[in-house]
UniProtKB/TrEMBL annotation:
Gene3D superfamilies found in the cross-reference section: 3.40.50.20, ATP-grasp fold, A domain, ATP-grasp fold, B domain, Phosphoribosylglycinamide synthetase, C-terminal domain
Name the record gives this protein: Phosphoribosylamine--glycine ligase
Pfam families, per the entry: GARS_A, GARS_C, GARS_N
GO molecular function: ATP binding; metal ion binding; phosphoribosylamine-glycine ligase activity
Length: 425
């Protein structure tokens, strides 16, 4: 098979690595890819939002399967474009990807079909939002309705913070049109967990659990980011929690989307809050999480191509997902200043230390990197996700932090408490 992966981040590198393990695949392309992906795939200089150019490439090169990694092209309808041209593609169509593309749509869906979530209200007018906040309980959560690179969520402790948040999202347009509509919802307390699920439109198969760390600085301080690290599995996602979620969240979500005429085929990412009142949905995403994919895929024992084929063919019920009985931790090496202002073009040293190490459970999944004549250099805020396995979470965490010392670049920054909660569990 020839496989094309669309995207350029650490998630796409993890997908490319997983695809490279399949005996069914001879050639991998990635558009546009990055410095690390270029070591296992041929990178193609086509941007993820150039749907027709990507489809032209897939036709010309007789691509057997295209995997869409990123949210923007999915929400924009890339799958529809590929399917209209008879190309085999993995990901939800535009009318299903709206489950991530619009927070208000997903909240309304949960409300209509009694899927557990918190109380919320939706606002198109900043004046009405500010009026609502005057009688609200704090802390409270403000969310941009549209896509905002994982950063459009504001947790506000006071009325003043919330009012400033409305200004940021709706008036200053920090996230552009994504903030034209906002969702204001009750603040939930508990442990967070992320569960990625394969879906075929009717059936849904959850993968092993993970937990992300969104804040930029240690102690969950600082600004929201795309994710500074993650671990898998979550010790708080027990068998009882899994059973509840399968019965009350995962399958009901699939059924709800089907009932709305929006059959969901692809990856459904369910962000959970494990509250005292039981698990509730924080949000949905319509693709692999980043950096959740970097700890989940290395633990998956199935051939990813077999699973994706089953999803596309509507036969996911015939697949039994299997994961290694171990743990994995990913620590993101970022450029200092991320997610605001940071420099690019810094030479990355020590990458050779990871060559062949995936057999030992060590991975360097590139995110913001670029291949140049001088070598691989930094090319983004999140640069590399260092992932390591271990017999348990504590060992995986120690291995991951040890491996962060194998690679270096100017302005290298990371959190030092990824997975610290697991030491206390």
């Amino acid at each position: 098979m020839k496989v094309l992966i669309v995207g350029s981040g650490g998630r796409e590198h993890a997908i490319a690595w997983s695809v490279s393990q399949s005996k069914k695949v001879d050639k991998i392309y990635c558009a546009p890819g990055n410095g690390g992906i270029s070591q296992i795939a041929e990178c193609v200089d086509i941007a993820a939002m150039e749907f027709d150019n990507l489809a032209d490439f897939a036709e010309k090169n007789e691509i057997d399967l295209t995997i869409i990694g990123m949210d923007d092209p999915l929400v924009g309808g890339i799958v529809d474009v590929f399917e209209e041209r008879g190309l085999r593609v993995f990901g939800p169509r535009k009318n299903a990807a709206i489950i991530e593309g619009s927070k208000s749509f997903s909240k309304d869906l949960m409300k209509k079909y009694n899927i557990p979530t918190c109380h919320y209200e939706t606002f198109n007018s900043p004046e009405e939002a500010l009026l609502y906040l005057e009688n609200a309980s704090f802390p409270i959560v403000l969310k941009a309705d549209g896509l905002a690179l994982g950063k459009g969520v504001l947790i506000c402790q006071t009325l003043e913070e919330a009012e400033a948040g409305v200004t940021t999202l709706m008036l200053d347009k920090q996230f552009g049109e994504a903030g034209d509509t906002i969702v204001i919802e009750d603040f939930m307390t508990g442990r967070e967990a992320s569960v990625l699920c394969f879906c075929d439109g009717t059936h849904i198969k959850p993968m092993t659990s993970a937990q992300d760390h969104k804040r930029a600085k240690d102690g969950d301080k600082g600004l929201n980011t795309g994710g500074m690290g993650t671990f898998s599995p979550s010790p708080f996602y027990t068998d009882d929690v899994k059973e509840f979620c399968e019965k009350h969240i995962y399958q009901p979500t699939m059924d709800a989307m089907k009932a709305e005429g929006r059959d969901f085929t692809g990856i459904l990412f369910v962000g959970l809050m494990l509250t005292e009142d039981g698990p509730k949905v924080l949000e949905y995403n319509a693709r692999f999480g980043d950096p959740e994919a970097q700890v989940v895929l290395p633990r998956m024992e199935n051939d990813i191509i077999d699973v994706i084929d089953a999803c596309i063919n509507g036969r996911l019920n015939e697949i039994e997902l299997s994961f290694e009985d171990n743990a994995a931790v990913c620590v993101v090496l970022a450029s200092d200043g991320y997610p605001e202002h940071y420099e690019k073009g810094k030479l990355i040293k020590g990458l050779e230390n990871f060559e062949g190490k995936d057999k030992e459970g060590y991975y360097a999944f590139h995110a913001g990197t670029k291949k140049t004549d001088e070598g691989i250099v930094t090319n983004g805020g999140r640069v590399i996700g260092i992932t390591a396995k271990g017999a348990n979470l504590k060992e995986a965490r120690a291995n991951a932090y040890r491996a962060t010392e194998w690679v270096d670049f100017e302005n290298k920054y990371m959190r030092h408490d990824i997975g610290k909660a697991i030491d206390e569990a």
